[in-house]
Design brief:
The structure holds two protein chains of two kinds.
Chain A (H helix, E strand, L loop, with lengths): L24 E5 L7 E7 L2 E12 L13 E8 L15 H17 L8 E11 L4 H15 L9 E8 L2 E4 L3 H5 L4 E7 L4 E8 L4 H37 L2
Parallel strand pairs in A: 4-5
Antiparallel strand pairs in A: 1-2, 2-3, 3-5, 6-7, 6-8, 8-9
Chain B lengths: L1 H10 L15 H12 L15 E5 L7 E7 L2 E12 L10 E8 L13 H15 L11 E3 L3 E13 L4 H15 L1 E3 L1 E5 L5 E5 L6 E3 L7 E8 L2 E4 L3 H6 L2 E7 L5 E8 L5 H31 L12
Helix pairs in contact in B: 1-2
Classes of the chains: A alpha+beta, B alpha+beta.
């Protein structure tokens, strides 16, 4: 995409943000009443829904049951109208399977699975509109949904993407910035302890720059944590008002 | 009459309609529902011909040509329409066409994970193809750009997010609302001296053509419970019904398509009765949908979009 300046001389990105600035995040818990837990998040133009069922008995073969902890099962699906060009299959293709595995890895690190042996927790994430940072939006939505379902977790899982352009680390990439082909880092963090649940990077990046990009992503993830914390507290406050406490 | 009603309720399977989300009901609950319906009183206080509260919102997803979200009780449907350029079909060179795809997402129930929702999705998509195969439903000739070469193809993608009974009605309402919201960019075909055609898109992003949805039908599902039939059945009521009739009705009360689904059998008088009810109910449904869609559009681009955050 020659000719498109990702970072202007004054330090503004394509959509007018600063290098370390996140897009506007709005979230809501308890979107669906029939599921055990559900949440919706909007990060800029990226919209993701997450639904959690569980913990419940293992569906399918009983032999998959783990004797000491719960099985976490994730499915990532993106609607056919979510991307600019229409997708043919919402799920089942290679990228969706890979995302599902990554989500599973992320949440097995955070959920206290040893409290529910021989059971299964299903996390289904649906992307309604994809404008960059889909993995991060999915993880954030899934965290809220797991909390809405009342499943105990070690900590919030907050995710953010980061990139590197012209010697500056950018946080929370949009689709335009991702398509430009620079290095992209996806980070899922447990904010209280600073532990990293998932770290993934594409494209070439010099190791001297890695720390800066990682730092930008971690800072952005902590900002996301502040927002998600506020959303959860607001939701609990509303729920307790409805219960009449 | 009470004992006969109870016997037919016991003969039912617990699952509601095949691969849909199943709900387990005890015998006592089934008898309660069946008896209530005979008296024109349903569990939530509605009459036999009343719909639940329907919430419709259009333009929910921004990178589509048109979209709509419909909530009918616990049923949640999101429809996105994408307009793409394609070649007309050989047997209809002057028309564009519609393609339907239904995705039963695992959000609705864990049984739809992986390929579990494909069967239901294909059934719904085939029903949509059938009701739109009628020539008068959508003006397909307005979708033609140049005969035999270019036309607009509207990909209507239905996403089933939550299943609370009465899927077909909700999906048809959502499809109609999404088609109403669809804005197709205006294009011009320029022909130069050598005869090669060039398609030019208008510069103004708001210069678009809209589809007329006056004749787009809506599906009314009637479930036979005991000796009466109900409109807009919940999951529990669907589990008690032996058979249902899907009728696709236009706003003038014209029936374009009819299908009987379910394991039980119906006698011809009940089918005629159900068709009369569907025409009556369908007309009311269309008028309220039209008024809501026009009211929403009159709010203009400054309308506050709620989506899933409200």
């Amino acid at each position: 995409m020659a000719g498109l300046e990702l970072l202007s001389d004054q330090g503004y990105r394509v959509d007018g943000r600063r290098a370390g600035e996140l897009r506007k995040i709005q979230a809501r818990m308890g979107v669906f009443s029939q599921a055990d837990g559900s949440a919706y998040i909007e990060q800029g133009n990226t919209k993701a829904l997450a639904v959690v069922y569980g913990p419940h008995e293992i569906r399918g073969s009983r032999s998959r049951a783990l004797p000491d902890r719960a099985l976490v099962n994730c499915q990532y699906s993106s609607a056919t109208f979510s991307t600019g060009e229409r997708k043919r299959r919402p799920h089942g293709d290679r990228k969706s399977c890979e995302m599902g595995l990554q989500l599973r890895q992320t949440f097995e690190a955070a959920i206290l699975t040893q409290l529910h042996p021989r059971s299964q927790i299903d996390i289904y994430v649906q992307v309604l509109q994809a404008d960059g940072g889909t993995y991060a939006a999915c993880v954030n939505a899934a965290t809220l949904a797991v909390l809405d379902a009342g499943i105990p977790m070690r900590d919030f899982v907050c995710a953010c993407s980061a990139g590197f352009v012209d010697g500056t680390a950018l946080a929370d990439l949009s689709h335009v910035e991702e398509a430009a082909g620079g290095p992209q880092l996806a980070l899922a963090l447990l904010p209280a302890s600073g532990q990293i649940a998932l770290l993934e990077m594409d494209a070439r990046l010099h190791e001297d720059h890695l720390e800066r990009v990682l730092e930008a992503a971690a800072r952005a993830a902590r900002d996301v944590h502040t927002l998600l914390d506020r959303v959860v507290r607001q939701h609990v406050r509303e729920a307790s008002i409805l219960l009449g406490d | 009459m009470t004992r006969a009603g109870a016997r037919s309720a016991r003969a039912d399977d617990v699952r509601a309609r095949g691969s849909m989300a199943s709900v387990s009901l005890s015998e006592a609950e089934k008898v309660y529902i069946v008896h209530g319906v005979q008296e024109d009183l349903r569990v939530d206080g509605r009459g036999c011909e009343d719909y639940r509260c329907v919430e419709v919102e259009t333009d929910v997803v921004s990178n589509t040509s048109g979209s709509a979200r419909v909530q009918l009780g616990h049923t949640d449907i999101l429809v996105g329409v994408k307009a793409e350029m394609g070649t007309p079909k050989l047997e209809k060179p002057n028309e564009g066409y519609l393609e339907f795809f239904v995705d039963c997402s695992a959000n609705a129930t864990p049984e739809f994970e992986g390929r579990g929702g494909d069967e239901l999705g294909t059934e719904i998509a085939n029903t949509l193809y059938r009701i739109f195969s009628n020539k008068s439903s959508v003006d397909l000739q307005s979708l033609c750009i140049s005969p035999r070469e270019h036309c607009w193809v509207l990909y209507v993608d239905v996403l089933l997010l939550e299943c609370g009974g009465n899927l077909f009605d909700a999906i048809s309402i959502a499809v109609k609302a999404a088609l109403f919201n669809t804005r197709i960019p205006r294009v011009r075909v320029l022909e130069d001296e050598e005869g090669s055609k060039d398609i030019e898109l208008s510069d103004d992003p708001y210069d678009c053509i809209r589809l007329s949805v006056e004749n787009v039908p809506c599906i009314v599902t009637l479930c036979k419970i005991g000796y009466r039939h109900v409109v807009d059945a919940t999951l529990q009521e669907e589990a008690c019904s032996l058979a249902s009739v899907l009728v696709s009705v236009t706003s003038q009360g014209v029936v374009t398509c009819m299908r009987k689904v379910g394991k039980g059998s119906l006698d011809p008088e009940s089918i005629f009765e159900m068709m009369e009810t569907s025409k009556r109910v369908g007309k009311v449904l269309h008028t309220s949908l039209h008024s809501i869609l026009h009211k929403e559009e009159s709010l203009g681009p400054k309308r506050q979009k709620v989506g899933f955050l409200g």
